[in-house]
Amino acid sequence: SKRSFPTSEEINSAGEQLLPRSWQLAEDAGDGPPFRFLSWNILADGMGDSQFNDRASLVRWRKRRVAILAEIGRADADVVCMVEVNHHQEFFVPMLDARVYVCAARFEKSPSWATSYGAPADGGSVFVRRERFDVLADWSSKIGIGKGVACALLRDRLAPCLLYTSDAADEEDRGESGGRRIIKKKK
Known about the structure:
This protein is of the alpha+beta class. It contains six helices and nine strands; from the N terminus they run H-E-H-H-H-E-H-E-E-E-E-E-E-H-E. Strand 7 (148-155) and strand 8 (160-166) form a beta hairpin. The protein starts with 7 loop residues before the first helix and ends with a strand.
């Protein structure tokens, strides 16, 4: 099947319509150079159509995927962690690869609620700016049924760090408040 990707013009147009956002500074950023970290539940394709039927046209994948790319571009993050990601291989990998990112980690949920809506299975993904980070290992794994963790060991070209992001579904089990954090940053 022919791939259909949004054009740069479509992404730029969507960027003009984005809501204002603000960044939070990390309390303990360590001694290394700062980096921008975007952590985001992007709402898997299929999941919003029935949950948000009062605004289904706004959450449909074909429209939302363009806004997601515009938001990632606006954030200009060094590390992009996303949960509820489907269309990973056929959409996000090529689209983000064309925009300076490489996939550092990926897990896919099994089972996934998204498949019950006719969409591909969702999961978690970590993308990093390729000129800043070297991907040393992908330690992603499934945890139980329909849960998982995307975990990557990266070299910041100055100091190794371990990045962790979990799917929102396993936060209750772990008692985490946010599910995304830098576990360790070495000098």
